[in-house]
Amino acid sequence: MVYLKQQRPEKVTVPAVRQSKERGEKLVCLTAYDYPTARIVDGAGTDIILVGDSLGNVVLGYDSTVPVTLEEMLHHTRAVRRGVERALLVADMPYGTYHTGPDDAVRAALRLVKEGGAEAVKLEGGRNRVETVRRLVAAEIPVMGHVGLTPQSLNKLGSYRLQAKTADAARALVEDALLLEEAGAFAVVLEVVPREIAREVTAALRVPTIGIGAGPDCDAQILVTHDLLGLSFSKTSPRFVRQYANVRDAINEAIQTYAEDVRTGAFPSDDESYPLPADAAAELGLKRDAGEEEKKTS
Ligand code: KIV
Protein backbone atom coordinates (compact mmCIF):
# COMPACT_ATOMS: atom_id res chain seq x y z
CA MET A 1 0.00 0.00 0.00
CA VAL A 2 2.99 2.31 -0.43
CA TYR A 3 1.81 5.53 -2.05
CA LEU A 4 3.89 6.56 -5.03
CA LYS A 5 3.02 9.89 -6.60
CA GLN A 6 4.00 8.70 -10.10
CA GLN A 7 1.79 5.67 -10.33
CA ARG A 8 -1.80 5.14 -9.34
CA PRO A 9 -1.76 3.14 -6.13
CA GLU A 10 -4.13 0.26 -5.49
CA LYS A 11 -7.55 0.78 -3.98
CA VAL A 12 -7.48 0.12 -0.22
CA THR A 13 -9.82 -2.70 0.78
CA VAL A 14 -10.80 -4.32 4.08
CA PRO A 15 -8.60 -7.40 3.40
CA ALA A 16 -5.70 -5.06 2.57
CA VAL A 17 -6.18 -3.29 5.90
CA ARG A 18 -6.07 -6.64 7.73
CA GLN A 19 -2.93 -7.67 5.82
CA SER A 20 -1.16 -4.37 6.51
CA LYS A 21 -0.44 -5.61 10.03
CA GLU A 22 1.34 -8.74 8.81
CA ARG A 23 3.39 -6.60 6.46
CA GLY A 24 4.24 -4.11 9.20
CA GLU A 25 2.80 -1.21 7.19
CA LYS A 26 1.61 1.80 9.15
CA LEU A 27 -1.72 2.94 7.78
CA VAL A 28 -2.53 6.63 7.52
CA CYS A 29 -6.08 7.54 8.50
CA LEU A 30 -7.90 10.88 8.53
CA THR A 31 -11.43 12.21 8.72
CA ALA A 32 -13.38 13.98 5.96
CA TYR A 33 -16.89 15.37 5.96
CA ASP A 34 -17.25 16.95 2.51
CA TYR A 35 -16.31 16.55 -1.15
CA PRO A 36 -13.35 18.97 -1.47
CA THR A 37 -11.69 17.70 1.71
CA ALA A 38 -12.26 14.12 0.61
CA ARG A 39 -10.59 14.86 -2.77
CA ILE A 40 -7.54 16.36 -1.07
CA VAL A 41 -7.23 13.77 1.70
CA ASP A 42 -7.65 10.88 -0.76
CA GLY A 43 -5.35 12.44 -3.36
CA ALA A 44 -2.62 12.87 -0.74
CA GLY A 45 -2.48 9.11 -0.25
CA THR A 46 -4.48 8.56 2.94
CA ASP A 47 -5.31 4.86 3.40
CA ILE A 48 -8.54 5.07 5.41
CA ILE A 49 -10.96 8.01 5.35
CA LEU A 50 -13.43 8.14 8.21
CA VAL A 51 -16.61 10.15 8.01
CA GLY A 52 -16.47 10.55 11.76
CA ASP A 53 -19.40 11.62 13.86
CA SER A 54 -16.87 14.24 15.02
CA LEU A 55 -18.54 16.10 12.17
CA GLY A 56 -21.02 17.12 14.91
CA ASN A 57 -18.40 19.18 16.72
CA VAL A 58 -16.19 20.06 13.77
CA VAL A 59 -18.55 21.17 11.00
CA LEU A 60 -22.07 21.24 12.47
CA GLY A 61 -21.22 23.25 15.60
CA TYR A 62 -22.72 20.85 18.14
CA ASP A 63 -21.18 20.57 21.63
CA SER A 64 -20.63 16.82 21.26
CA THR A 65 -21.21 13.90 18.90
CA VAL A 66 -24.37 12.89 20.77
CA PRO A 67 -26.88 14.90 18.65
CA VAL A 68 -25.54 13.68 15.27
CA THR A 69 -28.28 11.88 13.34
CA LEU A 70 -28.18 9.08 10.79
CA GLU A 71 -29.52 11.48 8.13
CA GLU A 72 -26.63 13.87 8.82
CA MET A 73 -24.12 11.02 8.58
CA LEU A 74 -25.68 9.89 5.30
CA HIS A 75 -25.62 13.39 3.84
CA HIS A 76 -21.90 13.82 4.60
CA THR A 77 -20.93 10.25 3.72
CA ARG A 78 -22.47 10.67 0.25
CA ALA A 79 -20.48 13.87 -0.30
CA VAL A 80 -17.24 12.21 0.80
CA ARG A 81 -18.01 9.13 -1.32
CA ARG A 82 -18.05 11.32 -4.43
CA GLY A 83 -14.55 12.57 -3.59
CA VAL A 84 -12.81 9.31 -2.67
CA GLU A 85 -11.24 6.93 -5.18
CA ARG A 86 -8.47 5.05 -3.40
CA ALA A 87 -8.92 5.13 0.37
CA LEU A 88 -11.16 2.75 2.28
CA LEU A 89 -14.25 4.76 3.22
CA VAL A 90 -15.57 4.15 6.74
CA ALA A 91 -18.64 5.86 8.21
CA ASP A 92 -19.36 6.27 11.90
CA MET A 93 -22.62 4.88 13.23
CA PRO A 94 -24.07 7.82 15.17
CA TYR A 95 -25.28 7.64 18.75
CA GLY A 96 -28.65 5.90 19.05
CA THR A 97 -28.47 3.89 15.84
CA TYR A 98 -27.04 0.72 17.42
CA HIS A 99 -27.78 1.14 21.12
CA THR A 100 -31.25 -0.39 20.76
CA GLY A 101 -29.92 -3.70 19.47
CA PRO A 102 -28.46 -5.57 16.51
CA ASP A 103 -31.58 -5.34 14.28
CA ASP A 104 -31.59 -1.55 14.39
CA ALA A 105 -27.80 -1.55 13.97
CA VAL A 106 -27.98 -3.66 10.81
CA ARG A 107 -30.73 -1.44 9.37
CA ALA A 108 -28.73 1.75 10.03
CA ALA A 109 -25.44 0.30 8.80
CA LEU A 110 -27.05 -0.97 5.59
CA ARG A 111 -28.19 2.59 4.88
CA LEU A 112 -24.65 3.92 5.40
CA VAL A 113 -23.35 1.31 2.96
CA LYS A 114 -26.15 1.34 0.35
CA GLU A 115 -27.12 5.01 0.36
CA GLY A 116 -23.94 6.57 1.71
CA GLY A 117 -21.41 4.45 -0.19
CA ALA A 118 -19.43 3.52 2.94
CA GLU A 119 -17.32 0.37 2.67
CA ALA A 120 -17.35 -0.24 6.42
CA VAL A 121 -18.86 1.22 9.56
CA LYS A 122 -17.39 2.11 12.93
CA LEU A 123 -19.12 1.85 16.27
CA GLU A 124 -18.08 2.57 19.84
CA GLY A 125 -17.91 0.10 22.71
CA GLY A 126 -16.36 -3.22 23.69
CA ARG A 127 -17.98 -6.32 25.20
CA ASN A 128 -21.41 -4.64 25.11
CA ARG A 129 -21.20 -4.51 21.27
CA VAL A 130 -20.06 -8.06 20.57
CA GLU A 131 -23.46 -9.34 19.44
CA THR A 132 -24.01 -6.25 17.28
CA VAL A 133 -20.61 -6.61 15.60
CA ARG A 134 -21.35 -10.29 14.89
CA ARG A 135 -24.68 -9.43 13.31
CA LEU A 136 -23.21 -6.67 11.17
CA VAL A 137 -20.40 -8.91 9.97
CA ALA A 138 -22.95 -11.64 9.20
CA ALA A 139 -24.78 -9.07 7.07
CA GLU A 140 -21.55 -8.52 5.05
CA ILE A 141 -20.86 -5.16 6.65
CA PRO A 142 -17.22 -4.76 7.72
CA VAL A 143 -16.93 -3.25 11.21
CA MET A 144 -14.24 -1.11 12.80
CA GLY A 145 -14.34 -1.16 16.60
CA HIS A 146 -13.60 1.83 18.87
CA VAL A 147 -12.58 1.54 22.54
CA GLY A 148 -10.89 3.73 25.13
CA LEU A 149 -12.37 7.21 25.08
CA THR A 150 -15.71 6.81 23.35
CA PRO A 151 -17.10 10.33 22.81
CA GLN A 152 -20.69 9.08 22.41
CA SER A 153 -20.50 8.08 26.12
CA LEU A 154 -19.94 11.71 27.18
CA ASN A 155 -23.04 11.82 29.37
CA LYS A 156 -21.83 8.73 31.24
CA LEU A 157 -18.15 9.80 31.42
CA GLY A 158 -18.79 13.44 32.31
CA SER A 159 -15.80 14.68 30.29
CA TYR A 160 -13.29 13.60 27.66
CA ARG A 161 -10.28 12.24 29.54
CA LEU A 162 -7.63 9.55 29.55
CA GLN A 163 -9.13 6.05 29.80
CA ALA A 164 -7.71 2.70 30.99
CA LYS A 165 -5.42 4.29 33.55
CA THR A 166 -6.01 1.77 36.35
CA ALA A 167 -4.84 -1.84 36.14
CA ASP A 168 -8.44 -3.11 36.14
CA ALA A 169 -9.57 -0.67 33.45
CA ALA A 170 -6.50 -1.52 31.36
CA ARG A 171 -7.19 -5.26 31.60
CA ALA A 172 -10.81 -4.64 30.65
CA LEU A 173 -9.72 -2.59 27.63
CA VAL A 174 -7.45 -5.36 26.34
CA GLU A 175 -10.31 -7.86 26.77
CA ASP A 176 -12.77 -5.56 25.02
CA ALA A 177 -10.46 -5.20 22.02
CA LEU A 178 -9.95 -8.97 21.85
CA LEU A 179 -13.71 -9.56 22.03
CA LEU A 180 -14.29 -7.13 19.17
CA GLU A 181 -11.67 -8.92 17.08
CA GLU A 182 -13.25 -12.27 17.89
CA ALA A 183 -16.65 -10.91 16.86
CA GLY A 184 -15.20 -10.00 13.45
CA ALA A 185 -13.99 -6.40 13.66
CA PHE A 186 -11.30 -5.79 11.00
CA ALA A 187 -9.58 -2.98 12.96
CA VAL A 188 -9.97 -1.30 16.34
CA VAL A 189 -9.59 2.40 17.15
CA LEU A 190 -7.88 3.11 20.49
CA GLU A 191 -8.68 6.63 21.64
CA VAL A 192 -6.87 8.46 24.47
CA VAL A 193 -5.38 5.54 26.36
CA PRO A 194 -1.88 5.24 27.88
CA ARG A 195 0.71 4.29 25.27
CA GLU A 196 1.78 1.20 27.26
CA ILE A 197 -1.77 -0.15 27.14
CA ALA A 198 -2.12 0.65 23.42
CA ARG A 199 1.12 -1.30 22.89
CA GLU A 200 -0.34 -4.26 24.81
CA VAL A 201 -3.55 -4.21 22.77
CA THR A 202 -1.60 -3.90 19.52
CA ALA A 203 0.52 -6.91 20.44
CA ALA A 204 -2.53 -8.93 21.49
CA LEU A 205 -4.62 -8.33 18.34
CA ARG A 206 -4.20 -9.85 14.89
CA VAL A 207 -6.13 -6.97 13.34
CA PRO A 208 -4.64 -3.47 13.18
CA THR A 209 -5.10 -0.94 15.96
CA ILE A 210 -5.69 2.65 14.92
CA GLY A 211 -4.49 5.11 17.54
CA ILE A 212 -5.62 8.61 18.39
CA GLY A 213 -3.95 9.83 21.55
CA ALA A 214 -2.69 6.27 22.08
CA GLY A 215 1.02 6.61 21.39
CA PRO A 216 3.35 5.47 18.63
CA ASP A 217 2.97 1.70 18.83
CA CYS A 218 -0.45 1.37 17.23
CA ASP A 219 -0.53 -0.14 13.74
CA ALA A 220 -2.11 3.01 12.31
CA GLN A 221 -2.77 6.60 13.34
CA ILE A 222 -5.82 8.75 12.83
CA LEU A 223 -6.38 12.46 13.40
CA VAL A 224 -9.30 14.76 12.76
CA THR A 225 -8.26 16.55 9.56
CA HIS A 226 -9.50 19.93 10.75
CA ASP A 227 -7.26 19.63 13.86
CA LEU A 228 -4.22 18.77 11.74
CA LEU A 229 -4.91 21.74 9.45
CA GLY A 230 -5.54 24.28 12.21
CA LEU A 231 -9.14 24.66 11.12
CA SER A 232 -10.81 23.62 14.33
CA PHE A 233 -12.86 25.77 16.68
CA SER A 234 -12.80 23.35 19.59
CA LYS A 235 -12.23 25.01 22.96
CA THR A 236 -9.39 22.68 23.93
CA SER A 237 -6.53 21.18 21.97
CA PRO A 238 -5.61 17.76 23.33
CA ARG A 239 -1.90 16.95 23.56
CA PHE A 240 -2.13 14.29 20.84
CA VAL A 241 -3.10 16.79 18.15
CA ARG A 242 -0.17 17.89 16.03
CA GLN A 243 -1.09 20.89 13.91
CA TYR A 244 0.67 20.70 10.54
CA ALA A 245 -0.74 23.90 9.02
CA ASN A 246 -2.68 27.00 9.97
CA VAL A 247 -5.43 27.02 7.39
CA ARG A 248 -7.70 29.09 9.61
CA ASP A 249 -5.20 32.00 9.51
CA ALA A 250 -4.69 31.53 5.75
CA ILE A 251 -8.48 31.71 5.15
CA ASN A 252 -8.82 34.72 7.42
CA GLU A 253 -6.04 36.56 5.60
CA ALA A 254 -7.52 35.77 2.17
CA ILE A 255 -10.97 37.02 3.23
CA GLN A 256 -9.58 40.22 4.72
CA THR A 257 -7.66 40.93 1.51
CA TYR A 258 -10.81 40.27 -0.55
CA ALA A 259 -12.82 42.61 1.70
CA GLU A 260 -10.19 45.34 1.31
CA ASP A 261 -10.21 44.91 -2.50
CA VAL A 262 -14.01 45.12 -2.65
CA ARG A 263 -14.07 48.24 -0.49
CA THR A 264 -11.35 50.01 -2.46
CA GLY A 265 -12.69 48.91 -5.87
CA ALA A 266 -9.57 46.83 -6.62
CA PHE A 267 -11.83 43.83 -7.19
CA PRO A 268 -13.09 43.00 -9.76
CA SER A 269 -10.66 44.17 -12.47
CA ASP A 270 -11.53 44.46 -16.19
CA ASP A 271 -10.05 41.01 -16.68
CA GLU A 272 -12.45 39.65 -14.10
CA SER A 273 -15.57 41.03 -15.87
CA TYR A 274 -17.05 40.76 -19.37
CA PRO A 275 -16.94 43.34 -22.17
CA LEU A 276 -20.03 43.94 -24.33
CA PRO A 277 -19.36 42.82 -27.94
CA ALA A 278 -18.73 45.77 -30.29
CA ASP A 279 -21.79 45.14 -32.53
CA ALA A 280 -24.16 44.96 -29.55
CA ALA A 281 -22.58 48.11 -28.08
CA ALA A 282 -23.10 49.92 -31.41
CA GLU A 283 -26.74 48.80 -31.71
CA LEU A 284 -27.46 49.84 -28.12
CA GLY A 285 -25.58 53.13 -28.53
CA LEU A 286 -23.35 52.27 -25.58
CA LYS A 287 -19.78 53.38 -25.29
CA ARG A 288 -17.44 50.46 -24.75
CA ASP A 289 -14.86 50.67 -21.98
CA ALA A 290 -11.48 51.92 -23.17
CA GLY A 291 -9.02 49.21 -24.11
CA GLU A 292 -11.61 46.44 -23.97
CA GLU A 293 -10.86 43.34 -25.87
CA GLU A 294 -13.37 40.65 -26.63
CA LYS A 295 -10.96 37.87 -25.91
CA LYS A 296 -12.54 36.97 -22.60
CA THR A 297 -15.99 35.46 -22.72
CA SER A 298 -15.81 32.94 -19.93
O1 KIV B 1 -15.50 10.72 14.95
C1 KIV B 1 -14.28 10.65 14.76
O2 KIV B 1 -13.67 11.50 14.09
C2 KIV B 1 -13.56 9.53 15.34
C3 KIV B 1 -12.07 9.53 15.26
C4 KIV B 1 -11.51 10.58 16.13
C5 KIV B 1 -11.50 8.21 15.57
O3 KIV B 1 -14.17 8.65 15.87
Structure in words:
The chain is an alpha/beta fold and about 300 residues long. The protein has 2 domains: about 15-250, TIM Barrel; about 270-295, no CATH class. Helices cover about 40% and strands about 10% of the residues. The chain contains 12 helices and 8 strands. β6 (about 185-190), α9 (about 195-205) and β7 form a beta-alpha-beta unit. α5 crosses α6 and α8 (about 165-185) runs parallel beside α9 (about 195-205). The chain is elongated. The two termini are about 40 Å apart. The structure holds 3-methyl-2-oxobutanoic acid (KIV). The site of 3-methyl-2-oxobutanoic acid has 11 residues, from β6. 3-methyl-2-oxobutanoic acid binds next to β6.
